[in-house]
Amino acid sequence: MATRKDLTNAIRALAMDAVQKANSGHPGMPMGMAEIAEVVWNHNLRHNPANPKWADRDRFVVSNGHGSMLLYALLHLTGYDLPMDELKRFRQMHSRTPGHPEVDITPGVETTTGPLGQGIANAVGMAIAERILAAEFNRPGFEIVNHHTYVFTGDGCLMEGISHEVCSLAGTLGLGKLIMFYDDNGISIDGHVEGWFTDDTPKRFDAYGWHVVPNVDGHSFGAIEAALKVAKAEVDRPSLICCKTVIAQGSPNKAGTHEAHGAALGEAEVAATRAHIGWDHPPFSIPPDVYEGWDARVKGEGSEVLWNNRFTEYERAHPALASEFKRRMKRELPANWKDAASAIIAKATEKAESIATRKASQNAIEALASLLPELVGGSADLAGSNLTLWSKASGMHRNRPGNYIYYGVREFGMSAIMNGMLLHGGVRAYAGTFLMFSEYARNAVRMSALMKLPSIFVYTHDSIGLGEDGPTHQPVEQTATLRLIPGMDVWRPCDTVESAVCWIAAVERGDGPSSLLFSRQNLPFQKRSPEQVASISRGGYVLSEPTGGTAAAVLIATGSEVALAIDAQKVLGEQGVPVRVVSMPSTSVFDRQDETYKAAVLPKGVKRIAVEAGVTDVWRKYVGLEGAVVGIDSFGESAPAGELFKHFGFVVANVVNTVKSVL
Ligand SMILES: Cc1ncc(C[n+]2csc(CCOP(=O)(O)OP(=O)(O)O)c2C)c(N)n1
Ligand SMILES: [Mg+2]
């Protein structure tokens, strides 16, 4: 029978051999965290390798994602569908073992990590989702949702600012089922961390309100086990287990050095390590008793069968709840969705209100949230400005689950937490901040797109139209940069109807995030035919045809500039220049339409002029060099909105002259 030392040796060998073969990767962390991993995976983690999607599995996140080989070794050894050949192809094209863990590529990988700190945030999101679902679905005698979220972290994650944002919030919310292991090895890429990281980490987490187990020997099975036992017993606070470890433990010459962080050990050192740890098997060869010692398939199936049986009884006792739970975990929309969504659009059309689109967004939330109990809202301390609250929103607190999260001023943390909630499943997440501060959240927004998560980012105060707060708050390039993220749908609606349509599109999207950009200021309602209403969801459509002849030019506008384009169209018409107005709330959605449709909206050979209160570059793609853009290629100014629009040329006369200048 394999000893625990054999089991951890297998991890050390797989990690150093795979990195050696790829001549690229990070052997140090897997070798340093092998004992911790053995305690968690072999004795605590509730999971079923045959069904990585089992709803009530424990979640496991490697926030120090450079240690991906640790996770791949664990998945392989415990019986996931990750054959040895994949480990041999570590970091190679189209392997299931990419450089950093990527969700949906490797079975059992819960989230994509690598950008340090965000894995912790994802784990916080998972723990939040668990709490919300447990409160909603568990009934006496039926613990349908009851699992832990484990997260591994290193010095890098804890140095990153986002770890402060989310661990502070996790402490406030008292997420007792979140358990984090700190790989305290005193090393990061540049060497020993004393020169740049001397926080008293236990005190720091104590101050957040976490339960901290300090000074654990991270290579002692007994010490790790004891710490984890106390952590699991603590249900009111998240736990941090601080493990003193040695990076690349087992390597006689590179252990404890930063050389082992992110480079192959080298053939000679790999051989020396084999001898040192007592592992005489060839690379990628694991003896049967070691496989046996790791195999989690029988136990995993047993755990899931128990849960399935419990769920069957639950289904009998609470049929409606059970079917709702299944719908939610499958991320399906409710049966009445289509009709209800059409009714929301019809109502906005009928009411014909001229209000700020942020208000229109709130109206949409009000209507949608009553249809979708899975919606979990929030804002980064701007609820009253983003208008993200609705009548039945209830804040999550330490002892109350709720359906709305007061994220505090933590835009990056908020966005990465949303990713974690969506990865957990059973909830849908939307949250707001000012469009300007999407920049603070940037990498989590990108990760949302990379992971194809349907996050809904509500970004209000979408242009210079926010007025007196000035250039620090006035987005100029943010709309454009969000559009550049592959897979991101950016919507900048012009009125209540477009706002409702973009919200519905964001909810219906299954394969990526949406950024919904809303105005602070009131925008006039636009009249449309039913056909025009139906074509909003195509991203761009003809809002107004000229009277008096076929269009000599096409004005393309978004959001607050659509009304300006309509006014300019009228004046141009009076001057004998017929122009068409195209409203283009979402360029990426428009780009996905068929060529016939696109050519019908933007006919070839007709000059185009775009109008948007932001940088001009993106619009060149639509207007070409022969067209023109009315935009802003400088920072804003502090002044009332009306004056700003005049100052930057968003007035009828300038649009009219610009159109004429290209004809
Ligand atoms: C946000 C971010 N910045 C920088 C990096 C590059 N990077 C990868 S690992 C690392 C150092 C991590 O140190 P630690 O977590 O202590 O890892 P260890 O060397 O102990 O394995 C850095 C700077 C990254 N992956 N993500
Ligand atoms: Mg370290």
Summary, kept brief:
44% of the residues lie in helices and 13% in strands. By secondary structure, the chain is α/β, with parallel strands linked by helices. Helix 10 links the parallel strand 6 (211-217) and strand 7.
Question: Could you explain the architecture of this structure?
Answer:
This protein has 663 residues and is α/β, with parallel strands linked by helices. A hairpin with a 2-residue loop joins strand 4 (187-188) and strand 5 (191-192). It is elongated. It starts with a helix and ends with a helix. Magnesium ion (MG) binds next to strand 4.
Which labels suit this protein?
663 residues; alpha/beta; six-stranded parallel beta sheet; 18 strands; elongated; binds thiamine diphosphate; binds magnesium ion
